[in-house]
Amino acid sequence: MHCKSCELMTESELKEVSGVVNAVSSLKNQSVEVTGDFGTRTPNQIATDLSQVLIKHGYSLSVEKQTQTKNWSEKWSDFKFALPIAIGFIVLFIILQKIGLINLVGAGKVTYSTAFVIGIIASLSTCMAVVGGLLLSMSATFAREGSKVKPQVMFHAGRIVSFFVLGGLIGILGSAFTLNTSGTFIIGLIIGIVMLILGINLLDVFPWVKKLQPGMPKFLSKHAIGVSKFNHTFTPLLVGVATFFLPCGFTQSMQIFTLSTGSFVTGGLTMLSFALGTLPVLALISFSSFSIQKSSKAGIFFKSAGLIVIAFAIFNLINSLVVIGLIAPVFNF
């Protein structure tokens, strides 16, 4: 498992299986405890049967702890390709920023362009798998009833509109607090650290970093996933809205920044930019079996994305230090 989303997804799917009374997943221990009535089946048979429910989301169960499929040398070998790719993207971003086409790195704050790019990375990352899982499950349910396109449109519309409205409300909530330069710096510092943790986690070389990822309170996230179980015409719309409350670290980092804007419009546009960044990949998932996790090049992609996220984190951390006057300007773009 990669993050808190994995806990929710595995628990939610297993609890739906006939005979299962309860399921409790642990990211820390990389395990799930399942209780229920399984008749005369052996633990190995139970693990095999329950894996069939989870395999579509990229998970599997076994009685004994499994070793990593990649050894350290294989993991590090991915960097031979990931590092040049990440450097190429970063150079491209700097050039586009220099000529004024985009504004990815702001003066100690997240720009709309940054939020959009982070949305693209988030939609392909492991911690957004729960959103893709919900989308696939919901799509399968409505497809059996002969409705394929309408639920997809409702889901994406609900997601985009809710991210703007709820992002705006968080911005208004932030306006109730008067943030001086020090307060803004602290929020910028938190965002930078969160992004740094997310980037390092994507590298998949330091397993302990997974435990540091932030997450929405579990009871709230469980209710958000529970919405997908409703059998109602407006369920796809509600599921789209509910994704705002799922435990994706990228989403949380944008929400933290939105709190510092103190503005409905700025907060709303920030979250809208992030949601639009996630749209292409989630739309692709809607109508295909697309999954970066199942690709043979997944390791290279995630490490490239991780390095890019780390670069964004460092850029914004340094710019935050510049704004508060602790260091002299480092980047002249």
What does this structure look like?
With 333 residues, this protein is mainly alpha-helical. It has 2 domains: 4-57, Alpha-Beta Plaits; 72-323, no CATH class. It contains 13 helices and 2 strands. It has helices spanning 4-15, 43-54, 72-77, 79-98, 112-124, 129-144, 149-175, 181-203, 218-226, 235-242, 249-261, 264-287, 298-323; strands at residues 20-26, 31-36. A two-stranded antiparallel ribbon has the order 1-2.
Report Rg: 21 Å
Mean pLDDT: 78
- Structure class: mainly alpha
| Main sheet summary | 2 strands, antiparallel
What is the strand content? Answer: under 5%
Integer count of domains: 2
Name the helicity range: 55-70%
What's the number of extended β-strand segments? 2
> Strand arrangement, largest sheet?
1-2
* Total of helices: 13
- In one word, what is the shape? globular
The first-to-last residue Cα distance is: 38 Å
H/E series = HEEHHHHHHHHHHHH
Low-confidence stretches: none
In short:
The protein is mainly alpha-helical.
Features:
333 residues, mainly alpha, Alpha-Beta Plaits, globular
SSE blueprint:
Blueprint: H1 4-15, E1 20-26, E2 31-36, H2 43-54, H3 72-77, H4 79-98, H5 112-124, H6 129-144, H7 149-175, H8 181-203, H9 218-226, H10 235-242, H11 249-261, H12 264-287, H13 298-323
Antiparallel strand pairs: 1-2
Helix pairs in contact: 1-6, 1-9, 4-13, 5-12, 5-13, 7-10, 7-11, 7-12, 8-11, 8-13, 11-12
